[in-house]
Description:
Layout: E1 13-19, E2 24-30, E3 36-40, E4 45-47, E5 52-54, H1 56-67, E6 71-76, H2 88-95, E7 98-102, H3 105-115, E8 131-133, E9 138-141, E10 144-150, E11 159-163, E12 166-168, H4 190-201, E13 208-210, E14 225-227, H5 228-234, H6 244-255, H7 264-271
Parallel strand pairs: 3-6, 6-7, 7-8, 12-13
Antiparallel strand pairs: 1-2, 2-3, 4-5, 9-10, 10-11, 11-12, 13-14
Helix pairs in contact: 1-2, 4-6
Amino acid sequence: MTEYPINMDVKPEVTGYFDEATNTISYIVKDPTSDSCAIVDSVMDIDYSAGRITYAHADNLIETIKSRGLKLEWIIETHVHADHLSAAPYIQEQLGGKIGVGAKIMVVQETFGKIFNEGTEFQRDGSQFDALFEDGDTYKIGNMEAFAIYTPGHTPACMVHVMGNAAFTGDTLFMPDGGSARADFPGGDAGVLYDSIQKVLALPDDMRLFMCHDYGPNGRDIQWETTVGEEKAHNIHVGGGKSKEEFVKFRTERDAQLAVPKLIIPSLQINMRAGEIPRDKDGNPMLKVPVNGL
């Protein structure tokens, strides 16, 4: 069992930025004792039907950091997202910082490198990223120590990042009335996801949890912050002591009814490259559509 360096006395300033097009929440996380910060799960805008990339969401993050005089040290990806595109390299070009992801990115790159028929020029060793995190790895944001928890199940490379008394769950958990994310993507596994969620629920009850997505179930307003205690008590998929068998049965049946995410094809190609858009043999930005490949 990995021992994690939890420090609930460190309370970072966390600001969420909701992207309505993808129901994604990106975060600026500021060290409480310095001007250093991190961005978690940035978004690059795409009009897929028009093949047009824009950067309004990322520009908002960049302008906020610049206007506050903050220093961006990390651009964290909780996993290779299948429903939105990362703006990490665009942000890095303007503000610096290191791009980090879970070390199992190599499994994702190998899997989808085959599906998208990527050539040998596509590196499957995670080298597109500046840092590859293993379970329990630590890093610094100013004076604040952060660490990563390996939480596979939704994808093989998912990680929850803990910064002081704040944890960023990626798609491992949703708000209590949202439950959990699907586990039917290549490399996903509902039983493994259940075990990963238990690692998150083993954190202190007053640990703040920040979601990567929210869909406003039953018409409620969009929300993205809860606590471990709230999830343990009220999460509709895993709360109240639900068993692994119950969860796997529900998750498997539910996933079979879900549609493929609208942006999965561009998202995977770009995100497994750390946010870089792939190019054709002439150097032009270009995306592929594998027919009956997903």
